[in-house]
């Protein structure tokens, strides 16, 4: 067997290495959804909820996300922050609504971001510190769950992505 040219070997090595990077996309085995840029902002006050953010890249068919859970938290909820207009002329207010699911259309990119869709993590383990890797388990209506790792950051730190 003849070895591939040096440039091809370097490309293959780089491609294989990129798949192992923390920010690399991870694919769900059953749902075929990919996830990237996952991070968790820890609470400023111990005992308060943390928030998880990530980007989902849709499959070649519609997929429904039912939950994002973590063994590092007692419970979790999908949420969306909305800007509501006061019908009486008062200032708009921000509200947070719980979501039962998130539909991911075919090939769509869905961003969970501050002041948008996000995952609330309640009862976060007190030992969790900035820089730790937080496991997140994405559960879908059909197919196998997808487990990813999110980088924990302190409450006042800028978003990493």
TrEMBL record:
Extract the SUPFAM superfamilies matched here: DR1885-like metal-binding protein
Source domain of life is Bacteria
Which positions carry the signal peptide feature in this UniProt record?
A: none
Residues in coiled coil: none
InterPro entries referenced in this protein's UniProt entry, alphabetically: LpqE-like, Lxx211020-like, PCuAC_sf
Protein's UniProt name:
Copper chaperone PCu(A)C
Please give the organism.
Sphingomonas morindae
Species lineage, top-down? Bacteria, Pseudomonadati, Pseudomonadota, Alphaproteobacteria, Sphingomonadales
